[in-house]
Design a protein that fits this description.
Number of strands: 16
CATH superfamily of the largest domain: Immunoglobulins
Number of helices: 3
Shape: rod-shaped
Structural class: alpha+beta
CATH architecture of the largest domain: Sandwich
Oligomer: single chain
Number of domains: 3
Strand order of the largest sheet: 12-13-9-8-16
Strand content: 35-45%
Helix content: 10-25%
Distance between the termini: 148 Å
Length: 258
């Protein structure tokens, strides 16, 4: 009986040892497996960039920060303006001296536009503004000095040689013409416009601008025998003035183009 009991006790002890070994093995195996899983997860998070799926992230990738490009070139008595962008243009305009905006039609191209602007007389500042569909904007001011024109004066002795035909031409419109012959003064007022027939009645020939102003005039004035001292001054409606001072004898022709 004791032997049997002893044998049974020994068997029970060995069984407990085996169970403990199995439990330890599984604990170690689970720990190792967990470490492997953690390593794989860490490696994946490091090697693969995280995709930004938020709305904010998507917007930041699509924002365009490139402003329209404006180029201003001189082309004769005009300014050539070239506007280009990588986005569609939504607004292009220009103005002289901070005046009223002159909006330009974009056209079919949408991303580039070329147009020409006449240069006014005198010193002026041109400003070009461009805005694209992404609300990027550009603005360039540049100064230009337009050529100031003046009335053209002419003085021609007639075929008989006894009169001088005084003339003035100005496409912006003449205001008046003053002249003296041997210090005797004369003045022709052209600001008040009459009909062509009325001018002919006083011996004057005129032409008109499209808007009804006097563009040119001719008037024959008798000369004295010998040399005649002549001074001519022509005034434009815009305030410009041109004059000539000199002497004239029969069959002498003078033309001033400045």
């Amino acid at each position: 009986m004791n032997q049997i009991l002893k044998t049974q006790n020994n068997g029970k002890g060995n069984g407990d040892m085996d169970i403990k070994k199995i439990i330890v093995f599984f604990v170690i195996a689970i720990a190792v497996f967990a470490m492997i899983l953690i390593g794989i997860a860490v490696y994946g998070s490091v090697s693969k960039p995280k995709e930004d799926t938020t709305d904010e992230g998507k917007v930041s990738q699509e924002v365009d920060v490139e402003d329209p490009k404006i180029e201003i070139l001189l082309s004769g008595n005009q300014v050539k303006v070239v506007v280009k962008d990588n986005q569609e243009l939504s607004h292009v305009a220009y103005m002289w001296n901070d005046g009223e905006e002159q909006v330009q039609e974009i056209g079919d191209s949408k991303t580039d536009l070329t147009f020409y602007v006449d240069i006014p007389e005198g010193k002026n500042t041109l400003k070009v503004i461009a805005i694209d569909s992404a609300n990027n904007d550009a603005e360039i001011p540049q100064q230009f000095r337009g050529e100031t024109t003046k009335p053209v004066i002419s003085a021609v002795v007639n075929s008989e040689g006894n009169k001088v035909v005084l003339g003035a031409v100005y496409d912006s419109g003449l205001q008046k013409v003053e002249f003296t012959i041997n210090e005797l003064p004369y003045q022709i007022n052209l600001e008040t416009v009459y009909t062509e027939e009325q001018y002919e009645q006083v011996g004057m020939k005129v032409t008109f601008t499209d808007d009804g102003k006097i563009e040119s005039m001719e008037y024959a004035q008798p000369l004295e025998e010998g040399e005649n001292e002549i001074v001519i001054r022509a005034y434009g409606l815009d305030g410009t003035v041109n004059d000539y001072e000199g002497s004239m004898t029969y069959e002498t022709e003078i033309e001033i183009t400045e």
